[in-house]
Amino acid sequence: MNAIFKALNDATRREILELLKTKERSAGEIADHFNISKPSISHHLDILKQADLITSEKKGQFVIYSINTTIMEDVLQWILTFKK
Amino acid sequence: MNAIFKALNDATRREILELLKTKERSAGEIADHFNISKPSISHHLDILKQADLITSEKKGQFVIYSINTTIMEDVLQWILTFKK
DNA sequence: TATATATTTAGACAAATGTCTAAATATTTT
DNA sequence: AAAATATTTAGACATTTGTCTAAATATATA
User: Any idea where the HTH arsR-type domain is (chains A, B) (predicted)?
Assistant: First the structure.
């Protein structure tokens, strides 16, 4: 739970998740959406991956990232314990 | 959304929310549940309050904190946009 | 094989964060 | 009014975080 909330606690990372919501994308495509250096985006992707919120797959010289919505379910369940 | 995720990105603060889930409590009662100084807990309470996740009310010399579950609804809605 | 393209790793640095102790403020009790 | 109790504010400090540039690694293409 710690890794998930840590990953979600950054606007750029949440925006990356939004991007991946529609379709999978390469690291470069993701980086192109931000005014942030590629190494920084790579680092954000790593944090999202540590939280299992995204997965990656190497395709030739590209690395394709996809969202892993099953982890969102964990957050959902946690939130639901607070609904009276 | 930023303030909410920031507030949730700490195990102590999440545990405070768990405590308040059952009933409202004074700052001192909350602090007694942790091996952390009262000023630190006060600071955590402030961050939770900034996110509107809790409310406070002064009762005599005590300050009583309560959870505000309506804000959890916002997180819930955000999460749900990822469920396919 | 040399060069270009895609991505990550390494290391540095400023800003933000969580913690503490000491002091200040507010309220109640003696 | 003085002392006790409850909480917050202020300031310090070590750790974590997000960012950058430069360099390393991996793959594809000329």
Answer: 1-84
For A9, which DSSP code? S
- Strand C contacts (Cβ < 7 A) comprise A 26-29, 31, 38-39, 41-43, 45-46, 56, 61-63; B 6, 9-10, 12, 35-37, 39-40, 43-44, 47, 58, 60-61
| Residue whose C-alpha is closest to residue B49's, from B29, B36, B63, B28 | B63
Domains and CATH numbers, chain B: 2-80 (1.10.10.10)
Residues B2-21 have a mean pLDDT of 98
> From CA A56, how far away is CA A41, in angstroms rounded?
14
Tell whether B19 is within 8 A of chain A (Cβ). no
Distance B14 CA to C18 C1' (A): 14
pLDDT tens per residue, range A31-42 = 999 999 999 999
pLDDT interval class at A84 (50, 70, 90):
low
